[in-house]
Amino acid sequence: MAGAIIENMSTKKLVIVGVILLLFQAFSFMVGGLIAPSPTTAVHYLATKCVDTVKTHHKGSKWFMPWGPDQCSKIRDFDEAMAKRIEANNIVFAVHIPLPNREMSPWFQFMLVILQFDIAFKMQNQIEDGSLATMDVGLAYRDSTLNEWTEMAHSTEHRKLSCNFTATKTYENEGRYYECDLLPFMEVGSVAHKYYLLNIRLPVNERKKVNIGIGEIKDIRLVSIHQNGGFTKVWFAMKTFLTPSVLIIMIWYWRRITQMTRPPVLLEKIIFALGISMTFINIPVEWFSVGFNWTWMLLFGDIRQGIFYAMLLSFWIIFCGEHLMDQTERNHFSVYWKQVGPIVFGSFCLFIFDMCERGVQLKNPFYSIWASDVGTELAMAFIIVAGICACLYFLFLCFMVFQVFRNISGKRSSLPAMTKARRLHYEGLIFRFKFLMLVTLACAAMTVIFFIISQVNEGHWHWGGYTVQVNSAFFTGIYGMWNLYVFALMFLYAPSHKHYGDEQSSERKCQKRETTAPVQKL
């Protein structure tokens, strides 16, 4: 009887394969830690207060530059505005991205902007509970300092203020600032232009209660976050290298299966599907985003990752089910609908949530599902349902792993009484299952450990004369690790051309009824 390659591979060869995979794993961490810069860069901006006259305000087409030859007429603070009798509706907060003498680049891939209000405490103008800040925001771009600004997006947005005043609310403490939470402001899925300009107005309308009860806003601060160009190039290079690697082993794996006289079993199909989903992630279509303004790349990337994780979770369930070693026939996907159902439903909920957020941002980059109470409740509902599905899946998986180990204990006691072919068959199943469990736990542990390290450390370590970028090492290392995981699955669990022994064909037929593990003759 023939089983998977891992069952027939000698210990020496298995160790060699393991060492090679570990070397590639170490290399993937080193690429991110020693070659790539930090994954992202955060740049802080303080909005410039520009003065808009009534005439230009009605035109609605003038863009206000905070600096440069065509800079706007500015004021230092609102006290100066009151002295000059400038109304709040004629004040425009202007922010130019990037800073002077710099340029944005398509290699930055995306641009996320966070907003924070500097609000001073005043006894006669305090922040009311549940107050909303209404903003008239516009985004423009240009690729040369000689060109005119072109409007990219314009919208009226509302953000709920969440501020806390830590001191006692007395006249003595007037002028001290509230501690306000950061607010989501804008997300652009492509940085196709060199210069961007944000104009923000805070219109006041006492009759409609617009921007009433939001305190005395002194300044607006923005934080722009984008991917580093150097990290993008390293990331693209990794995807370009890994795509043919996984694709070649996937073709080899499926060719080996089709050479058999029987049709592929469910376990072989799910491993092949896992390889397809990994290849789908690896295909470096991001290269085109450097030359094209593809704002949908962030959404597309989320969809690709979702498909891979759904296939990975489904594979673990089916792999456990196919190694239960009982007399039940499970070589059909419908048998696992109870376990796979939560995966599909949870993935669908997260997809809907992503479409409600990044899908809408394709038209309006200022949109945030968290900006309104209804959107927040809807988003939390999707996330909670997905979390419940994840818990159900985890319980199903733990129960199936428990069943497999319980059956393993029962089979071990009866192994000596079996014929050689049957004994080797069950020993192969046991070894195959335990090996994958060990590797899977190691990969999951590495993912969690490096994620925690990347969150609690300062972003880089100094090691001798080298600077190790921990966050970059986390991204490239974990990405390389799951590629190696899928690569090892397709190589080690492909059908083998070796025999266990010279048992009769009737022995093979008996075993075929008990398991759907790969069986092949020379």
Automatic annotation (TrEMBL):
GO terms for biological process: intracellular protein transport; Wnt protein secretion; Wnt signaling pathway. It is a multi-pass membrane protein. Residues 228-497 form the Wntless-like transmembrane domain. It comes from the Eukaryota. GO terms for molecular function: Wnt-protein binding. Pfam families: WLS-like_TM (PF06664), WLS_GOLD (PF21883). This is Wnt ligand secretion mediator. The keyword Membrane applies. Residues 500-515 have a biased composition (Basic and acidic residues). Residues 48-227 form the Wntless GOLD domain.
